[in-house]
């Protein structure tokens, strides 16, 4: 699904109630995103409301049986017997609103609260000479992840402009918690690429028989935001009130659904992120950075297959960054002031990931008659899925003149149970381990999540 982000100011007692009602009214008429196949594939509104309201969310407890000290890879021997740590998290809580104005015009929004949102307050501290202090009481983000206007000329051709999801890879196009088995999104794609990746741009998309296509014009990534452990994961983020767009980029995706239960997809991205920042440097012919573009190219394949009792999903992604060594040197040369928004990190020439997951519905295998005899259609669709997942990825494959970051290559093996009391709700239990090269410690974990995804007026 395509999503958008916005930051809302906290409500105070001094706010005029009329302003509050106006904001709520505007939110209500905003339209829900057609980002994933669940949205806007059907232009017919004769038998349903023009307003679409929905959302999804996750609440998670995870216990890691290893240290969370950031130095654990520098001195692994010091942390071999370190105690573990538990975390409670709200990875995503999303409100989706959509409206069809008719004559092919629709709008969509998606408001996302990540990790519980943020809480900031100004307080008067009595024990500090009654000084006023601004405190951050809770981390997280509140963001408008989708915000677009669309004109549909028919099933085969639609134009969408605004803030949209970039459909590169499996997870960006299928990021609802009911669309993957793990408690968290698949680690490989969620590490090396933005996830969910959203940009302000222009999209052309449509369906032709068993084919669905999408072409996008977007701003390029920012090479100063790239890192060793995340490759381009943070490169779509902007620390400013606007998104720098010195250079254009393009993305594309094509899906084929010609066989029942099967989807095959190819997607890709290309853009030049060097100097795509608020601070642009001019390099002379004598500079080692003269002529550097640092083109990012990503190619991705993913598939999904499902029948009455089996679900199988997989993906493979490969990315390359031109002039990686020079970009790393430029990143490291930036001023390291405390207010700098940049990570000042090296970045690899290549990154890749591959993953596969399979789940079996135990209720279907056992032929549970109690569920089938229920008069409630939702209960009759209950599932108990036993699943396994494997991810292998490397966020830093060095250029010839770079030193490898060995701990950036990781494997994640996990298994667990998903219980769906109804299609919109899933309770997830997962246990697994993250594996590295021999000199590093393994990182076992266990996680429990309650998730939902659905529409309220459909």
Topology:
Elements: H1 17-29, E1 51-64, E2 85-89, E3 92-102, E4 105-114, E5 119-125, E6 131-138, E7 141-154, E8 157-165, H2 170-173, H3 187-192, E9 198-208, E10 211-219, E11 248-256, E12 262-271, E13 296-306, E14 310-321, H4 324-333, E15 350-361, H5 362-366, H6 369-372, H7 377-380, E16 383-397, E17 409-422, E18 425-435, E19 443-455
Antiparallel strand pairs: 1-2, 1-3, 1-19, 3-4, 4-7, 5-6, 7-8, 8-9, 9-10, 10-11, 11-12, 12-13, 13-14, 14-15, 15-16, 16-17, 17-18, 18-19
Order of secondary-structure elements: HEEEEEEEEHHEEEEEEHEHHHEEEE
Number of domains: 1
In CATH terms, what is the architecture? Beta Barrel
Query: Within the largest sheet, what's the order of strands?
Result: 1-3-4-7-8-9-10-11-12-13-14-15-16-17-18-19
Low-confidence stretches: 1-46, 126-130
What is the arithmetic mean of pLDDT? 86
Rg over CA atoms: 23 Å
Helix-and-strand structural type: mainly beta
- Overall morphology: globular
Fold-level CATH name: Porin
The CATH fourth-level homologous superfamily: Porin
- State the major sheet: 16 strands, antiparallel, barrel
Looking at how many chains there are and whether they match, the oligomeric state comes to: single chain
Q: What is the CATH first-level class name?
A: Mainly Beta
- Strand percentage lies at 35-45%
Helicity, as a percent range: 10-25%
